[in-house]
Amino acid sequence: MALHINPLDGIFIGDFFGFLISLPIALFLAFWFSAIKHRVFAILGAFLGSFIGFVAIYAWVGTLVSDPPVLSSNPGAAFFASALFCSILGLAGGVLVDVLVASRSNRDYRRPAHE
Q1: Which of 24, 66, 105, 108 keeps 20 to 30 A from 7, CA to CA?
Q2: Is residue 36 part of a domain?
Q3: Does residue 96 belong to any structural domain of this protein?
Q4: How many domains does the chain have?
Q5: Over the stretch 94-112, which tens digit does the pLDDT of each residue have?
Q6: pLDDT tens, residue by residue, 64-104
Q7: Is the pTM of this model over 0.85?
Q8: Domain range enclosing 54
């Protein structure tokens, strides 16, 4: 089984532009919601989540896994599915990395004890 990537296919173009539209949304929200000191980790998690969404949509609808695309798929559906799904997964990835980093370095986020 080989991966079939056709960059001139309408589904790939729709999925790619949906991914590009979702990046500012996911990266900005991950930066804004982040509660850790080094926010670049939350932004990298958001980018990774968006990229996973891009690959998942292209594998599901496009020709990444199967040679002919899904029968009733079109570029517009791939665009809107990718824009929404990549935004959601990007925000989820940013929040997940934010929680993981905060739990690893929890002494930075504790309130000082009153004496």
Answers
A1: 24
A2: yes
A3: no
A4: 1
A5: 999 988 888 887 666 666 6
A6: 666 666 667 788 888 999 999 999 999 999 999 988 888 88
A7: no
A8: 23-75
